[in-house]
Inverse folding.
């Protein structure tokens, strides 16, 4: 299974089909011994005897098999792999009545496993995330009134149930209980006395039929040209990646909707990946207008029963369009014909835990395995994607102008060295004035600070003691509204202590630096007429809260939004004309490889919230380094010059996208054991041409959730098969059970 060693996005180098799942021709019955992959971290597929009922198993079939004393469900991966004598093998228990896992999905599982150095079973587990979906849909039971009158003892609760069912319809038990405000016992009682009867309900039509022509949009010439190019690719169809590079508000969404409509019209399924899907009610609304109904959504907050229905409906081809988070890539689409990755530069597409994969890159792999196009959309594409365009691997379509009357906002730097805020404050007088002016015109302002809570650090004025998390190498963040100190890494929370835990001084603890709550306090003090609203993951949880936020802003119930990254993207608020960035330098410290790139991306995105309607927008960046290339690019609108500068620096240093990285994080509860493994890996580090190892070194988060952490970074030249180097390296070191070595190929996080 060497397929994962390929260089991403290089169509020459991706060699799908060498994994086991690729070896069986679709629908060919296999022999008397089959290999079955189980959704468990077991190292590979196991061989089983096929049942002797003559039906024959096919690759992709879901089967129950014995594993030790247990029965588990797995997937027939292909013909027998091992050389165990047939008489020693145990038989498959039976085939499940579920649609087979499509071949492209199976090959994708193999590919991701090989690329990320994960167990194929761990990856399969992601493709089988809803085991109950493998059972045929149970007919839903409902209750309705019996038409013939019966005598029974009436109670208020019983009367409420009968009132809810007055019109003669049947309702599922839980719905009925909720609407009548009764327990399920009351319903059972009414069935018992013969006043209600149970009936089978037709399956819920949760997934509406979409219409590619429901709400067409008149595109501008520029948009139309891009849309036509994408539609042609969808109709072709064959693998290819296109970067849709358009400024914020240029109509990228409308343009890729045309490609989605083309996929729908061609009888294909389509997948749109969005970061933080649950939080973009405006996107869903636009989708509804364009296609006449809502898409199926897929993300981690989905309820269990909807997950189950969605997974099964995707597998059966009943769902045609899914919009979701990165895990949507592992859904069992039988007819996928397009993947769109919106905001492709977002690091939210990178999964750090478990199987560490980059969703955007794996979307490209999935498209190649299915031989259909992928679209990556962004106003601030990642350097990886730009480099792929420059190398001729990806095509590019440009949308250089905002749609309609809207113009891009004017961006200016506020030099905090020249016009600092007064002591103890964080907003410069010029920014405060600009907010005042906007409000006077009846417009809205957004103050951006990517820090939740009140203050990132609390220290003792007398002894200098800093309040730290007991489980992590991290300061505790004060959340003043909740009167708490919180660790943003492990969730540990405690009340703010009345005195310094170190020197016992009373009232000596002071908050250092601002979080959004502190900025809101400052706004309230300086602009008493303003109606501030804090928007963070603490205040806006889930789709309902996000929809409410949109309503509050559109109806002008708030006029100064103070928020984190959550406010930076997706939202379209026509009357929002001013964006103030409280600390534009915040993301630049820390020495992360992508610090400059990311700071530009997030500040550009948040700037893009200003002036999206007819009124001109303005952006003010509070900075101590206005000469920094990132600030200059934001102010002068010279994104491409910054990209060229960053790419040159990456190339000179051999960093991605010109070299490749893999991180090893060694962790465990015992620092000595962790250090031993880290040192052994350091001694065994691959040397020689084309690669070198940095570390071991304590991770910046040297302790996380009570586990000690050390890091090593492998850096190889472009074109070196990094997986092979990693495998050979890891094979030399024995790792005790209490120590974990996490492999992260193409790491994005260096903490
Ligand atoms: P982007 O994704 O590039 O930031 P959007 O697709 O969100 O841009 O478009 C910005 C705004 O302009 C949205 O409100 C969208 O509905 C509107 N818009 C874009 N193109 C058109 C069009 N051709 N006709 C009508 N409205 C459009
Ligand atoms: Zn912690």
């Amino acid at each position: 299974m060497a397929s994962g060693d390929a260089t991403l996005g290089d169509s020459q180098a991706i060699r799908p089909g060498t994994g086991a799942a690729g070896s069986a021709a679709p629908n060919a019955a296999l022999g008397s011994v089959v290999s079955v992959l189980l959704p468990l971290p077991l190292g590979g597929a196991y061989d089983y005897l096929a049942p002797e009922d003559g039906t024959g198993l096919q690759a992709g079939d879901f089967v129950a098999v014995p594993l030790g004393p247990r029965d588990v469900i797995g997937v027939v991966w292909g013909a027998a792999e091992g050389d165990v004598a047939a008489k020693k093998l145990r038989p498959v228990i039976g085939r499940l009545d579920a649609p087979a896992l499509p071949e492209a999905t199976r090959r994708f599982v193999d590919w991701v496993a090989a690329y990320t150095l994960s167990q194929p079973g761990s990856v399969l587990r992601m493709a089988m995330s809803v085991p109950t979906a493998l059972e045929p849909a149970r007919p839903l039971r409902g209750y309705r009134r019996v038409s013939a009158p019966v005598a029974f003892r009436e109670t208020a609760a019983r009367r409420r149930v009968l009132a809810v069912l007055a019109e003669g319809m049947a309702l599922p038990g839980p719905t009925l209980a909720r609407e009548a405000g009764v327990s399920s016992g009351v319903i059972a009682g009414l069935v018992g006395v013969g006043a209600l009867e149970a009936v089978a309900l037709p399956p819920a039509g949760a997934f509406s039929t979409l219409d590619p022509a429901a709400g067409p949009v008149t595109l501008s010439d520029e948009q139309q040209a891009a849309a036509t190019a994408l539609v042609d690719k969808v109709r072709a169809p064959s693998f290819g990646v296109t970067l849709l590079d358009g400024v914020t508000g240029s109509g990228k969404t409308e343009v890729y909707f045309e490609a989605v409509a083309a996929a729908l019209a061609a009888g294909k399924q389509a997948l749109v990946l969005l970061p933080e899907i649950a939080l973009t009610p405006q996107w869903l609304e636009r989708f509804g207008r364009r296609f006449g109904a809502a898409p199926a959504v897929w993300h981690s907050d989905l309820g269990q029963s909807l997950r189950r229905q969605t997974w099964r409906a995707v597998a059966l081809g009943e769902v045609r369009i899914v919009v979701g988070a990165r895990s949507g890539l592992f859904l069992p689409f039988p007819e996928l014909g397009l993947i769109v990755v919106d905001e492709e530069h977002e690091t939210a597409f990178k999964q750090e835990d478990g199987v560490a994969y980059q969703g955007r890159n794996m979307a490209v792999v999935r498209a190649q395995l299915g031989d259909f196009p992928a679209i990556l959309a962004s106003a601030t594409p990642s350097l990886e994607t730009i480099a792929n365009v420059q190398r001729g691997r990806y095509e590019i379509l440009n949308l250089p102008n905002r749609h309609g009357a809207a113009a891009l906002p004017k961006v200016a730097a506020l030099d905090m060295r020249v016009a600092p805020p007064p002591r103890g404050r964080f907003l410069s007088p010029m920014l405060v004035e600009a907010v005042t002016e906007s409000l006077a015109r009846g417009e809205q302002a957004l103050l951006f600070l990517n820090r939740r809570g009140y203050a990132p650090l609390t220290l003792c004025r007398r002894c200098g003691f800093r309040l730290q998390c007991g489980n992590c190498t991290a300061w505790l963040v004060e959340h003043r509204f909740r009167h708490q100190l919180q660790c943003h890494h492990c969730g540990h929370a405690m009340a703010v202590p009345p005195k310094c835990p170190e020197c016992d001084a009373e009232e000596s603890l002071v908050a250092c630096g601002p979080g959004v709550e502190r900025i809101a306090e400052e706004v309230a003090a300086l602009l008493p007429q303003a109606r501030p609203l804090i928007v963070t993951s603490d205040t806006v949880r889930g789709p309902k809260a996000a929809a409410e936020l949109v309503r509050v802003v559109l109806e002008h119930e708030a006029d100064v939004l103070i928020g984190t990254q959550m406010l930076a993207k997706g939202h379209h608020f026509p009357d929002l004309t001013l964006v103030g960035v409280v600390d534009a330098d915040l993301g630049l410290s820390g020495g992360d490889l992508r610090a400059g790139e990311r700071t530009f991306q997030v500040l550009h995105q948040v700037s893009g919230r200003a002036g999206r309607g007819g009124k001109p927008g303005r952006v003010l960046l509070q900075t101590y380094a206005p000469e920094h290339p990132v600030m200059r690019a934001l102010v002068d609108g010279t994104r491409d010059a910054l990209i060229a500068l960053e790419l040159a620096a990456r190339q000179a240093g051999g960093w991605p996208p010109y070299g490749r990285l893999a991180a090893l994080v060694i962790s465990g509860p015992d620092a000595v054991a962790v250090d031993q493994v880290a040192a052994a890996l350091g001694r065994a580090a691959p040397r020689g041409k084309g690669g070198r190892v940095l570390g071991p070194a304590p991770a910046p988060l040297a302790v996380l959730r009570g586990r000690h952490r050390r890091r090593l970074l492998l850096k190889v030249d472009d074109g070196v098969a990094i997986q092979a180097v990693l495998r050979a390296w890891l094979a030399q070191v024995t790792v005790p059970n209490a120590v974990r070595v996490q492999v992260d190929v193409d790491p994005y996080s260096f903490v």
Q: What stands out?
A: DSSP finds 19 helices and 30 strands in the chain. Residues 217-220, 223, 246, 248-254, 403, 572 surround adenosine-5'-diphosphate (ligand 1) (CB under 6 Å). The first helix runs from residue 103 to 116.
